[in-house]
Amino acid sequence: MSAHLPHHALQSSADLDPLLHAIGDARVVLLGEASHGTHEYYTWRAATTKRLVQEKGFQFIAVEGDWPDCFEVNMAIKQPQDQRPASELLQTFNRWPTWMWGNWEIAALVDWLRQHNAGQESSRKVGFYGLDVYSLWESLEQIMQYAGTKGEAAAQAAQRAYRCFEPYSADPQEYAQAVAFVKEDCEDEVVTMLRELKRRLPATGPDGLGPEIDFATEQNALVAVNAERYYKAMLRGGGSSWNVRDRHMMETLERLLELHGPDSKAIVWEHNTHIGDARYTDMAADGMVNVGQLARQQLGREEVYSVGFGSYQGSVIAAKAWGAPIEKMPVPEARSNSWEALLHTQIGRNALLFSNEIRQLPALKEHIGHRAIGVVYRPERERFGNYVPTVVPERYDAFMYIEQTKALHPLPTKVNEHVPPDLYPWTD
Known about the structure:
Elements: E1 8-9, H1 17-23, E2 28-31, H2 39-56, E3 60-63, H3 67-78, H4 86-89, H5 104-118, E4 127-130, H6 136-146, H7 152-165, H8 172-179, H9 187-197, H10 210-236, H11 240-259, E5 266-269, H12 272-275, H13 291-299, E6 304-318, E7 327-331, H14 339-346, E8 351-354, H15 355-358, E9 368-371, E10 387-390, H16 392-395, E11 398-404
Parallel strand pairs: 2-5, 2-6, 3-4, 3-5, 6-11
Antiparallel strand pairs: 1-8, 6-7, 8-11, 9-10
Pfam families: Erythro_esteras (PF05139)
InterPro entries: Emycin_Estase, Hydrolase/PRTase-associated, UCP036794_erythomycin
Organism: Hymenobacter koreensis
C-alpha cells in the first residue's frame, strides 16, 4: 500500500482523548485483544476502562470469563469488609486457562476498582461480571446454595437438575458423549430449573446487593441451560457450539444492561474473535456469529463501539496443547501481507487508528490476514495459521496497534483437575 495510513500517537493515557471523543455516547464499548496472554492488551484496556468509568459513567465490566468466578470478584470489589488481597481473590480463577483473569495486570485493576467503589453509593459501584457459558457444575453448585430462598418448587427443580448431572463426575465431555446418541439428557431439568428460578422472591444481601444475588442465581441457571446445549453441540462440530456460546454471552450482556437500568453503559473485554464483527471475517462463510455482530444488530450500530488490538512481535503467555502447562513464548514478526506487517511497515510504533479515517483505502476494502493467538499457540506453525481474513475497518471502529509486546504476568494459581473441552478451534 503506497497511500499514507492515517494514525494517532499511542504512548500514554492522555493519547486516548481521540478515542473517548469517537466513542461519544455509545452504550457498549467492546475492547478486544489479539491473544489471551499479552501484557499490553490488558494494560491498555485497563487505561481505557478507567477513563470510561471516570469520564463517561460506565457502570460495569463484562469479560470473557466464567460467571461464578467473576461474580465473586464483583462482590468483593463492592464490599469494604472483603479485604482479601487482589492476588488472593483472583485465585478463584483456578480452571485452565487460569492466567486469563488470574494475573497481576487484573490484580492491579481490581485494586483500582476497589478504591473507586469505596467512594461511591451502592447503586453507583462499578461491577465485574463473566459472560461465558462453560461453568456448568460450578453454576449448579451456586444454585444449590441459594435455590431454597426462591421457594420449594425452585429448590426441588434445582435438586432434580443437580442429580441429573451427578453421574458424570463434573466432566462436561463425559456428559456430552453419554447423551449424544440417546434421548435421556438433562435438558428438561435445567430448563425447568430456570423457569422456576425466574419466579423471583425478594432477595436479601449485604450492602444493598440483594438484587444482584437474586440476578446471579437466575444467571447461574441460564448458564446451566446454555452450557448443556453447548457441550452437546460440540460433538456435532461446525460452528454450532461457537454460536451457542456467543449468543449466550450476548444474552448475558443484555441482561446485565437491563439489571443496571435504561441508561446503563457496559465495557466488554474479550478476544478480537468475539468483539470484531464476524460478518467481516471468514467466520461468516461458516455460519458463525459473534458478540461484535450481535451487539451491532440487537442494540443498534450507533450504540456499540468496538476496538480491536494487535501487534507486530514480542512474547506471549500460552500453552502448546489444550490443558498443558503455560509457557512464555516468542511471538515472531508478523507474516508478510498481513495487517500487522502493514502497520509495522507504514507506522512502526504504537498507534491508534480509526476506521472512518482508513475505510476508503483500497487495500483495506478487501480481506487481509489479521493475527489471532489463543490459549493454545505454537509459534513455529504461524505461517500456516493464526491469521483471520478480515476487512479491518468494517470489523472494528478503532484499532490499537502495539509494535512490540511482552507476555502477561500470571499468578501462581493451582489448576483445578477438571480441564474444560477445547473452546478455541481456530487457534491451532
